[in-house]
Amino acid sequence: MLPSRPAIRRLLVPASMPRPTGPPVAPDTPVNTPARLSLISRHLAPDYPINTPYTVERLPRTIDTSLLPSSQTRRMSSQPEHPTLLIPGPIEFDDAVLQSMSHYSESHVGPGFVVTFGETLSMLRKLFQTTDPTAQPFIISGSGTLGWDLVAANLVEAGEDVLVLSSGYFSDGFADCLRVYGANVTELKAAPGTKPQLPEIEKALSEKKYKAITVTHVDTSTGVLSELKNLSALVHKVSPDTLILVDGVCSVACEEIDFDGWKLDGVVTASQKAIGCPAGLSISMFSGRAMKAFQSRKTPPSSYFASMKNWTHIMQNYEAKKPSYFATPSPQLIHALHTALTQILSRPVAERFALHKAASDRIKKAISDLGLKQVASNPNEQAHGMTAIYLPETVTQADILPKLAKKGVVFAGGIHKEIGTKYIRFGHMGVSVLDPRRGDVEKALDALENGLTECGYQKA
User: Fold this and answer.
1) Mind listing the domains of the chain with CATH numbers?
2) Which residues form a coiled coil (predicted)?
3) What's 302's DSSP letter?
């Protein structure tokens, strides 16, 4: 018979208990009773403490987990059982991030929240790898799409020319947004699964002066990765006054972005993808050059809510730990973002990018071993946070997606207007690849292989 809950709580190992630095303890090594009771209590009581940024590290290595069912040992999560979400955003979220969402209600201009918001803005600079004091971060309630409006309403005036590099559905959406605000848009389109190449970009830049060029770093519809470093060098060489603006919604925090080193002028993203925070925040960084372009406008910004005129001093005040107000932010989402960024920056960002690449390579090899092809056919143009997978001719989305769901895995269908019914999308970002003890990737690959077999597919 187990001790009563109060008795168990008295035996809990303190949250501050130091982690051993020696080798892991063998399963047959005797473990003291308080440690065993600590393990049990963490599954009886939902309010166990968090003692590191990563929930997988809550259990001291001296605790024997061999008595637990294997699924519990793998996940170590306080979240209710649910299908593993492996779409290209929203992604699975770490427990600590979700628990930050339950922060008590507080004033958005109160001292506690002001400090949290200010720290969050400062951490964005580290994530984007910028030390330029004239660069400006923005965190505004909204989705990634709001980033397009920030660009179109503030950095481009009606009638100005913009070159849009189109590599899929979301690149086309960026172009549509710019047109709404009156920009004169020229699109360089590529076939599905590819991207515009540097020679044709150079030719376009040589033929006309563009106020800005936009590039979707990872187009979520195709999994195509656009290279930024050489693109930026080309633009600065051929058309140095052209602003370089990046849609990084599906790339920030899983693909390298060296904002200063690559001389980018703007990157817009969102909270719910590789950053690992629930949806609801538009996140962006703009260079000092971009801010000067905004300040030099001949006409007022063509949006009210998305106006940098209304938001810039708000962001600057918050980062300086001063209360400010234009429109009410979401304190709970800001707390969650603060936790997510704290986790991200607890290790070098280069290590994070390398881990995503390693997981992506493993996933893409497994897909190839199944005899399947990717929408992004060139290995140098394949994203590391998602994979778009062509289905066998005998299998449809309607066949495979429900079978995956029955196995507890959620993939996304294709959305590119030319090939949408022919492929599915596998998102592999954040904790699903950074916390291998979850087993999300293995579960997904097993479900895909077995699901295809149930659909009658056999590798040639």
Assistant:
1) 99-344 (3.40.640.10)
2) none
3) S
